[in-house]
Amino acid sequence: MSSSLVILVVGGFFLVRQATAGIVEAKRTSAIAETTATINRIQGQLRDTDLRTASLYERLNRLADDAASQSGQYHVLIQGPVSGLISQGVSPDSVPADLTAQVGESSGVWTAPTMVHYTDHVRPDVPGIVVGSTLWSPGSSQSIPVYFIFPETQEVATVALLRRSVISVGALMAVAIAVTTYLATRHISRPIRQASITASKLAGGDLDERMVVRGTDDLATLASSMNDMAAQLDRRIGELERLSSLQQQFVSDVSHELRTPMTTMRMASEMIEADPHDPVQVRSVELMRAQMERFELLLADLLEISRFDAGAAQLALEDCDIVELVRSEIVDVTPLADRLGVPIVLVADCAQTAEVDPRRISRIIRNLLANAVEHAEGKVVEVTVVGNDCAVGVAVRDHGVGFEPWQAEKVFGRFWRGDPSRVRTVGGSGLGLAISRQDANLHHGWLTAWGRPGQGAFFRLVVPRQPGGVIVESPLPPSPTDGDHADDQEE
User: Fold this and answer.
1) How far apart are CA 394 and CA 284, in angstroms?
2) Digit-coded pLDDT (tens) for 152-205
3) What is the mean pLDDT of residues 365-378?
């Protein structure tokens, strides 16, 4: 619309300018023709004048007044011998000085634009055209400059009328363009806006939303395509939900069904342990029990994962001291840490209370500690518990093998291992960190990881002090501060 208005304004300006130039040029041509005819007529009348009975300039003034009164289109000024330009009604200032010089230097017809000044001071000054030429005295070579002044009163009125007409028409066209643009934009933008609203609802899960199809144009085609896409999404999502439900049910059923043979196998192992003097039998029973415990852990983790997938996990909230939960888990993992030669250091200035599910928080800390001890390679594991007004944070730092930065999210994947060739020293299901991330999310908290090869790993758990609280600021940094990690200190 703005470009159309610019074109309209520029077009109107050039139209008025061209029309004005044409009117002025037509006036100039008419003035030259009128002046030439009048000069020839006056010159012929002068030849028949008897200068013995009348003065030359009296005769010229009379002839000029007669010509002006008959035409009514111009005023005549005659260059007198003493008093200069002689005229009645028009000031000599109406003749430009440069035109006077041109007429005095050579014969011919000369023109110039001017401003016509009237001597009565009643009529306003108006633009005009001055045409200058010369008359010759009868019987001699004396030249007499004569100037014809043509006021452009009618032309000025015509140009003003044209300008008003162009402005009026331009204003009407601008209004018409604005209305047309508004209607066209509304016609186009309404379906697009409706498509945007429909897409937002589809993205929000309202797969029953559809667009109204009107007409057969491109917008109607867009609406039909949107409806077809929504229908396809609805079908595909329904299929995925059914498959997911079948998968969850399968995992849950298998986990439950395997518990029965596991119980039988455990009972059988206890029975065949009756003869402790056979070292082969004792070792076999130990291996069997270790693998059954690992298998039972895997079944328990699979059941827990299936609860998360089904959205059935619930919190049993209690007001707990997180420091005490950490101490308890350190005590439980100390035998393993002693066996692997890994010292554990706890840094906690005071109690840090929060309303959490102690079973799930303990499980997170247990998984983080077991993971750190396993990968610490005999180096110290540091556990830090701090808090602020809105949250409590637990950090577990080891200085072992570590991992690549791009693996910081992958460590929370199910059954993911950073180094498949590495032998596990701690029996685990491979689901511990995945379950820990889900437990943290269930508390509306964070569980993040940082690692560098050869520099160890840093896991950070942050939970709000109150259920559903917002963590405005973390009490722990996202990476360790025991080295040159300034490039990692970003939330």
Assistant:
1) 40
2) 888 888 888 888 888 888 888 888 888 888 887 777 777 777 777 777 777 777
3) 91
Exposure string over 334-359, b if 16+ CB within 10 A, otherwise e: eeebeeeebebeeebeeebebbbbbe
Candidates 170, 134, 137, 167; CA nearest to 57 is: 137
Residue 381 to residues 322, 349, 373, 374, Cα–Cα distance (Å): 18, 18, 7, 10
**Which tokens is 426 given?**
């701690």
Are the CB atoms for 28 and 127 separated by under 8 Å?
A: no
CA distance 34 to 71: 9
Task: Name 483's Cβ contacts closer than 8 Å, sequence gap at least 6.
Answer: 455
Q: Can you tell me the distance from the alpha carbon of 433 to that of 409, in angstroms, rounded to the nearest whole number?
A: 10
In angstroms, the CA 85 to CA 91 distance is: 9
Q: Are 110 and 99 in contact (CB under 8 A)?
A: yes
Between CA 385 and CA 366 the distance in angstroms is 14
How many Cβ atoms from other residues are within 10 Å of residue 119's Cβ?
14
The angle at the Cα of 413, spanning 291 to 343, to the nearest 5 degrees, equals: 65
Contact residues for 491 (Cβ-Cβ < 8 A; gap 6+) = 474, 478
pLDDT tier, 386 (very low <50, low <70, confident <90, very high otherwise)? very high
Helix (H) or strand (E) holding 121: none
54 contacts: CB under 8 Å, gap ≥ 6: none
The tokens for 94 are 């109406």
Query: Looking only at Cα atoms, what is the longest distance across the chain?
Result: 174
3-state SS assignment for residue 276: coil
pLDDT of 223 strictly over 80: no
Which of 257-263's residues contact partners 24+ apart within 8 Å by CB, and which partners?
258/295, 258/299, 259/296, 259/299, 262/292, 262/295, 262/296, 262/299
Q: Which residue has 């008003």 as its token pair?
A: 164
Q: Angle of helix 153-203 relative to helix 218-272, nearest 10 degrees?
A: 20
For residue 463, the cross-strand partners are 392
Domain annotation for the chain: domains and CATH numbers? 2-160 (3.30.450.20), 218-310 (1.10.287.130), 318-488 (3.30.565.10)
pLDDT tens per residue across span 421-434: 554 555 555 778 88
Q: Please tell me the predicted confidence (pLDDT) of residue 396.
A: 94
Residue keyed to tokens 């006077």: 100
Band (379; pLDDT cuts 50, 70, 90): very high
Strand partners, 385: 394
- Tally Cβ neighbours within 10 Å of residue 463: 29
Strands (E), 332-375: 344-347, 353-356
Q: Which of helix, strand or coil describes residue 490?
A: coil
Token representation of residue 439: 């437990």
